[in-house]
Design a protein that fits this description.
Layout lengths: L2 E2 L11 H11 L9 H17 L7 E5 L2 H11 L5 E5 L2 H13 L4 E4 L19 E5 L1 E2 L4 E2 L2 H10 L3 E5 L16 E5 L11 E5 L1 H10 L8 H9 L9 H13 L3 H21 L3 E2 L11 E5 L2 H13 L2 E2 L1 E2 L8 E5 L6 H14 L1
Helix pairs in contact: 1-8, 2-8, 3-4, 9-11
The structure holds pyridoxal-5'-phosphate (PLP).
The site of pyridoxal-5'-phosphate (PLP) has 12 residues, from helix 3.
């Protein structure tokens, strides 16, 4: 099997192989999702996730099928008039595009790759109902620092929603700085795709209740009613939930993982610069710890990827506008120190 540094779907935790068999043998995969055994499994998986990710007690956790689904849940159930999207990459842009289809008055505001969103020159921050931010922009390897999220929280009175798809499960998130966080599990959770995690504040729930959207199978209030009694609105991805539960028992608490990933990211960035690679994101303040993007001309990017593959290493393609001129390296918890030694050996030898 090749060693993949793709930033999603990404390398799985190695024990997932064993857990797949365990899942089959447990009988849970054929069980009615209204049965006690299934409900207990669901409840335990969420309880362990809450502990390991250090989610505040008053925040609620629901499972969905993907981050993309969460884009629509937020647009349907938390935005009645318009949201404001601050973004600098392809995933933030996609979220804005999906929201605009449902809520045409929504606005978008872009900012530069090496910059933070400029709150001073933003349109009236009091106006939008929901402010939408991308914590970790997987397409270009940028991230919003905690202190920026806290500053925004201090200035903006409405609901804040954050896409943390490629950071949740690896980076310690400042939960209290926002109201609706979400991710899918094929990035930092080291799990196969097909499951999303949504973490919601009491403020967001109050807001959803005021709006009262119950028109959709995945309306936030309907999701909530189901999860409060360990139910799901539809027959769920029971294998995904089983694997999530098992892996959440294994992983280190998020503060440990956070330290580990941050150290590994800065070592890798130093290594790359020393070996004459160019990082796409020059400002270390806004550089992601979980997705590193290397910039080079298209021909060089192609040959690096090809040579890597010949050695059994898969590097991530660029994404969106950076498709041909960058390659991306995931720094997710399921990747080991050994994996990074192998990567560095390769990158060092060809620079
Ligand atoms: C991968 C990703 C998504 C999409 O996730 P799906 O599971 O395909 O819905 C959304 N936002 C970000 C930041 C991502 O990295």
């Amino acid at each position: 099997m090749n060693l993949t540094f793709y930033p999603g779907p990404s390398k799985l935790y190695p024990q997932v192989g064993r857990y797949l068999t365990d899942a089959y043998e447990s009988g849970l995969l054929s069980m009615n999702h209204r049965s006690t055994a299934f409900m207990e499994m669901l409840s335990r998986a969420i309880a362990d996730l809450r502990i390991k990710l250090e989610i505040p007690e008053e925040y609620e956790v629901y499972l969905t099928s993907s981050a993309t689904e969460c884009w629509e849940i937020i647009a349907q159930s938390l935005v009645s008039t318009h949201s404001l999207h601050l973004y600098n990459g392809a995933f933030g842009q996609k979220w804005f595009d999906y929201t605009r289809k449902l809520r045409p008055a929504s606005q978008g505001l872009t900012f530069g790759l090496n910059e933070l969103p400029d709150l001073e020159s933003s349109p009236d921050l009091a106006a939008p109902e929901v402010l939408c931010l991308t914590h970790n922009e997987t397409s270009n390897g940028t991230a919003l620092p905690d202190q920026m999220l806290h500053r925004i929280r201090g200035r903006y009175p409405g609901i804040i929603a954050v896409d943390a798809t490629s950071s949740m499960g690896g980076i310690a998130l400042p939960w209290l700085a926002a109201d609706a966080w979400y991710a899918s599990v094929q990035k930092c959770f080291g799990l196969p795709p097909g499951l999303g995690v949504m973490v919601v504040s009491p403020r967001a729930i109050d807001h959803a209740e005021r709006l009262g959207d119950r028109k959709h199978y995945n309306s936030l209030l309907f999701l909530r009613e189901n999860f409060l009694t360990n139910q799901t609105p539809y027959t769920p991805n029971s294998l995904g939930i089983y694997l999530l539960g098992r892996v959440m028992q294994d992983v280190l608490p998020i503060t440990h993982l956070n330290t580990l990933l941050n150290e590994r990211a800065s070592e890798l960035a130093d290594f790359l610069v020393r070996h004459n690679y160019r990082l796409l994101v020059e400002n270390p303040q806004v550089r992601s710890a979980t997705v590193l993007a290397i910039q080079a001309e298209a021909g060089k990017v192609r040959s690096i990827k090809q040579e890597a593959l010949a050695q059994g290493i898969i590097l991530g393609n660029g994404y969106g506008p950076w498709k041909d001129t960058t390659l991306r390296i995931a720094n997710f918890p399921a990747l080991t120190e050994q994996d990074f030694s192998k990567l560095k050996l390769f990158l060092g030898s060809r620079s």
